[in-house]
Design goal:
The protein is an alpha/beta fold and about 260 residues long. The chain has helices at about 10-20, 35-40, 85-100, 135-140, 175-190, 205-215, 235-240, and strands at about 1-5, 25-30, 45-50, 70-75, 105-110, 120, 145-150, 150-155, 175, 195-200, 230. The strands form three sheets. It has a seven-stranded parallel β-sheet. A two-stranded parallel sheet has the order 6-11. Strands 8-9 form a two-stranded parallel sheet.
């Protein structure tokens, strides 16, 4: 059984771990000893780890488990949109001290937020890894890293109707966590390395349409939705991937 390391056992990390746990032994990190105790009680191999961005920390030791790990999945924020480059550099260097000279498969959860917020359809060709500081730094150490630019994370308790929104006529670029898990599993099984993929559901209804669907209220789009749309057609083509949840208007429906 392969060993998978997940750095960041949060909302997404926990769901990735659950999806892989039947086939892979999971090693993970948490930021408190209490959470580590809970995870270890569940049979996960957890350790306390944090990666501060306010300074370089020369006391961070290499993860003991890294020598046994075949697949490394990084879910902590590294895209750099919400912090300055110096803070991002510190966070990533602290992370790299922890992961060391890893040679296996690497997955980095980036964000479609790296694309400009303008009314246009974007593909991976519009913004290279080298143009995104966090992605560039990771690839500098791990050229084999797969970069997944995720849309808005949805599913379970995360539904658009639960949030205060602006611009209800704007299109959504959302992704159900189940499809993220399926993409990662497909790429692990095929040994895919060094790829950059956008990961958003193929359909992009308006925010208003999504909210009405989640509230079980009738709604009809009377105008063509216009705004920023992030396409995932490259992933669909290269992985021959079919989305379980292609329509954000159906994310609230629990499938058997």
């Amino acid at each position: 059984m392969k060993n998978t390391g997940i750095i960041g056992y949060g909302w997404l990390g926990s769901r990735i771990a659950a999806s892989l746990s039947e086939k892979y032994t999971i090693h993970t990190t948490a930021t408190t000893t209490d959470k580590v105790s809970v995870l270890n009680a569940k049979g996960l191999n957890a350790v306390v780890a944090s990666f501060p961005d306010y300074q370089l920390n020369d006391k961070i030791l290499q993860w003991d488990s890294i020598q046994h790990i075949d697949v490394l999945i990084i879910t902590i924020p590294l895209s750099g949109k919400s912090c300055c480059v110096s803070s991002l550099y510190n966070r990533i260097q602290n992370l790299l001290s922890f992961t060391g000279d890893f040679k296996g498969q690497v997955f980095v959860m980036s964000s479609t937020g790296v694309y400009p917020d303008i009314p246009k359809e974007f593909t991976e060709d519009d913004l290279s890894v080298s143009a995104v500081p966090g992605e560039r730094m990771i690839r500098g150490r791990y050229p084999q890293a797969n970069i997944l630019r995720l849309g808005g994370l949805m599913g379970d308790n995360r539904l658009l109707k639960n949030y205060n929104i602006s611009n209800p006529e704007a299109p959504v670029n959302h992704i159900h966590y189940a499809d993220i898990c399926s993409v990662i599993l497909r790429m692990i099984e095929t040994g895919t390395e060094g790829k950059l993929y956008n990961l958003t559901a193929p359909l992009h209804p308006s925010k208003a349409a999504v909210i009405h669907a989640q509230q079980n209220q009738p709604f009809s789009e009377e105008v063509v939705v216009q705004g920023r749309i992030i396409r995932s057609s490259k992933l669909v083509s290269e992985l021959d991937f079919t989305f379980e949840y292609p329509d954000p208007c159906s994310f609230h429906i629990i499938k058997e």
